[in-house]
Design brief:
alpha/beta, 9 helices, globular
Length: about 230
C-alpha cells in the first residue's frame, strides 16, 4: 500500500510489483539542456534537471522490487516527414529549425533525442518512442502493457502539465490505476505544475492519486516480493 491522496494506492490494497509499470516521461537531453527546446521557448529548464536525483531513487526502488521500467522519448522522424507546417511554424517562432544539428529539434537518432546520461535505461527496460504529447497515441505502449500484465502505472518525468498529464489521462480512460509521483515530475512553469497535480485529485481522484517519492518507495518496499 502506498500512502497517497485523496486515497491510498491501490484502492483495494493489493500492490503487486509485477503488475506495476513506472513510466518516466521524456527526460531527454534536448529538453533538459540549456540550449534545448524549453530554453529556446524562453523557459529555465533547471526545474526539470532538479528532479533527476528523485527519479534515480524512484527507478532504483521500482526496479529492485520487480516493477517494469518504461521510458518514453518524444520527437520527430529523422527525415521530419511527420512534421506539419504548423509544427514547423511553432518551432520557428522559438528559433528552432527542424534539421539535424539543431540542439532543440528533437529528431530521432540525434544525440539530444536520447534519455539524459544520468538516467540511461538499463538492459531489459522498455523504451517507447512517441510523436505526440500522449504516450498511447500511435505507439505500442498499450500492447506492451497488456503483454507484460501491467495494470497499475506510476508517473514521473516531464512535463507534469503536458506529456505526463496527457499520458496519465489516456491511461485513466483505459482503466489503468494511476499514481502521479509529484516530486519526480516537473514543469518549467511552476503554476502549471501545481495545477496539474491538483487536477489529478479533483472529484475524489478522477485521474488517480498523488504521492511523494518517499511514500512510493516505502510502499513498494513493503509489498510482497516479485516472484
Amino acid at each position: 500500500m502506498i500512502r497517497a491522496r485523496p486515497f491510498d494506492y491501490p484502492y483495494d490494497g493489493k500492490l503487486d510489483p509485477k503488475a506495476v509499470g513506472l513510466l518516466i516521461i521524456d527526460l531527454q537531453t534536448d529538453y533538459l539542456s540549456n540550449d534545448g527546446y524549453f530554453a529556446r521557448k524562453g523557459y529555465d529548464p533547471e526545474p526539470l534537471r532538479a528532479i533527476i536525483p528523485a527519479v534515480e531513487r524512484l527507478v532504483s526502488a521500482a526496479r529492485a522490487v520487480g516493477c517494469r521500467i518504461i521510458w518514453t522519448r518524444q520527437g520527430y522522424r529523422s527525415d521530419v516527414a511527420d512534421a506539419s507546417p504548423y509544427d514547423k511554424w511553432r518551432a520557428a517562432r522559438a528559433g528552432i529549425e527542424l534539421v539535424a544539428g539543431d540542439s532543440a529539434a528533437l529528431l530521432r537518432g540525434s544525440p539530444g533525442y536520447d534519455i539524459i546520461p544520468e538516467l540511461a535505461p538499463h538492459p531489459g527496460d522498455i523504451v517507447i518512442d512517441k510523436t505526440a504529447n500522449g504516450a498511447f497515441y500511435q505507439t505500442d505502449l498499450e500492447l506492451v502493457l497488456k503483454a507484460q500484465g501491467i495494470t497499475h502505472l506510476l508517473f514521473s518525468g516531464a512535463t507534469t502539465d503536458v506529456c505526463v498529464h496527457t499520458t496519465l489521462r489516456e491511461a485513466t480512460d483505459r482503466k489503468y490505476q494511476c499514481l502521479l509521483v509529484e516530486d519526480a515530475c516537473a514543469s518549467c512553469d511552476a503554476y502549471a505544475h501545481e495545477a496539474a497535480i491538483h487536477m489529478v485529485t479533483v472529484e475524489d481522484g478522477i485521474f488517480g492519486v498523488v504521492a511523494t517519492v518517499d511514500s512510493v518507495i516505502a510502499g513498494l518496499a513493503a509489498a510482497p516480493p516479485a516472484e
